[in-house]
Structures are given as structure tokens and as C-alpha cells.
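User: Please fill in residues for this 168-position structure.
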């Protein structure tokens, strides 16, 4: 009997660890792939998202899997909320410099770069990227356009993350 209870307990713990939970909501990637993690990987790159506990900033990590130097163009990076595309600011941006160019992060082969970002509009009146109060009514999607520059051109990766509360 103990073995059965222990087995059930472990299976529940392992199942809940496969999901990402933040600010009272579960998060999953729905585009470009459906996944319980917040990571997109292909032969060239690995893009992952980590939401901070207060749900204002998202840490974006880009890992270069190629044998060439690539770059993330932060001036073209967008956060999509609903039908609105918003430029970003970093976690260390001051109000006076919110419109200044953000530049590019060069990423050498087999290394990674990361930045914590939020929509530029939120610098004066911080608002969360999603709210449990509204997610209870319907899931909320937050999109990201991640522009990556390769030696032979630029590719925009669109990643959409959904915040939801499972139905009981």
C-alpha cells in the first residue's frame, strides 16, 4: 500500500514539475511549437523565456548553435499583447533614455546572451504582462518577435506564450 501511495505522489510531483507556473497561472508555449516549457529550439538557436515572479519583466535567453556569430537586434524586438505590438526596454533602462537605441547583442558560436525586457509603455506605469484575475476568465497570450541576424540575412522568430488556469 505504501508503494502505491508513494508511486502516486511521485507521479503527481513529476507531472506538475513539467509545467511552468508563475504569478498564480500556468504558462506554456503555443507557437512556433506547443510545449509545456517556454523554450524553442532548432538547429541554429535556442530561445527561452523566464518570467520574473512579479510578472513585469521577461528574461529572454538566446543560445547560438551555429558556427558563425549571430546577433539579436533589440531595436526590432517586439512584445505582442493582444493586437498591439510594443517595443521593449531593459530592466536597467532609465525613463530619460527609454527612446534611446538598444543596439544588438553579438553571440559567438556555441554561447548565449540574455536580457530582461518589458514593453516600453510600462516604464512610467508598470503593469503586469498578464493578470490571474483576467486569466481566470480566459487564457491570455503574450507574443514575442525575436529578430536574429545571421551572416546571410535576418530571421524573425515569433514565439507565443499562453497564461492559463487549468479547469478542474
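Assistant: Residues filled in for all 168 positions:
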Amino acid at each position: 500500500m505504501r508503494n502505491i501511495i508513494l508511486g502516486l505522489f511521485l507521479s503527481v510531483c513529476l507531472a506538475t514539475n513539467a509545467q511552468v507556473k508563475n504569478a498564480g497561472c500556468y504558462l506554456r508555449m503555443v507557437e512556433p511549437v506547443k510545449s509545456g516549457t517556454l523554450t524553442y529550439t532548432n538547429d541554429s538557436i535556442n530561445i527561452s523565456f523566464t518570467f520574473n515572479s512579479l510578472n513585469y519583466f521577461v528574461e529572454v535567453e538566446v543560445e547560438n548553435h551555429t558556427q558563425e556569430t549571430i546577433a539579436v537586434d533589440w531595436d526590432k524586438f517586439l512584445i505582442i499583447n493582444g493586437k498591439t505590438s510594443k517595443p521593449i526596454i531593459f530592466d536597467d533602462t532609465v525613463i530619460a533614455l527609454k527612446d534611446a537605441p538598444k543596439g544588438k547583442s553579438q553571440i559567438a558560436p556555441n554561447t548565449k546572451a540574455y536580457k530582461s525586457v518589458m514593453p516600453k509603455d510600462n516604464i512610467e506605469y508598470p503593469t503586469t504582462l498578464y493578470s490571474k484575475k483576467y486569466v481566470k476568465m480566459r487564457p491570455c497570450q503574450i507574443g514575442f518577435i525575436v529578430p536574429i541576424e545571421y551572416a546571410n540575412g535576418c530571421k524573425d522568430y515569433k514565439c507565443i506564450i499562453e497564461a492559463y488556469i487549468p479547469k478542474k
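For context: The chain has one domain: 19-164.
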